[in-house]
Amino acid sequence: MNTSTWSPCLLSVLRIMSGLLFLEHGTSKLLGWPPSPMPSHGAFELFSMMGFSGVLEFVGGILLVIGLFTRIAAFILSGEMAVAYFMVHFPQAFAPMVNKGELAALYCLVFLYLAAAGGGPWSIDRLRNRGI
């Protein structure tokens, strides 16, 4: 089996699935669906940290799913997850298992990889670069 044949396709699968899962965080914050297991802290405010992160997650998730501006979107989302980890999780405890920051750390690294690797063959970015 030639792994070089499957690697680009699996890069696209990683991008699409990460984008869909991340988009779900955005829709939960912005639209209330699916309902978040985290307790709500009053009415939703767009011009708050939670509102700003919801917009980034919603728009960034869509961009990742379709593979448009993948490198830029992934870089911004990686930064968002780094900020989330160090502002929300790290002050609680050092270890990600204890501070419940594993998901933020993992998203940060996956998005950093996508920022470097690009969207893969199944992306609008690939079509744009071909001139199609």
Report on this model:
This protein is an all-alpha fold and 132 residues long. It has one domain. 71% of the residues lie in helices and 0% in strands. The protein is globular, with a radius of gyration of 16 Å. The two termini are 31 Å apart. The model has no long low-confidence stretch (mean pLDDT 92).
Sequence-ordered SSE layout with sheet pairings:
Blueprint: H1 3-31, H2 49-66, H3 70-89, H4 96-99, H5 102-117, H6 124-130
Quick description:
By secondary structure, this protein is mainly alpha-helical.
Which tags fit this structure?
about 130 residues; mainly alpha; about 0% strand
Approximate helicity band: over 70%
Overall morphology: globular
Q: What is the number of helices? A: 6
Distance between the termini: 31 Å
Q: What count of structural domains?
A: 1
Using only C-alpha atoms, the radius of gyration works out to 16 Å
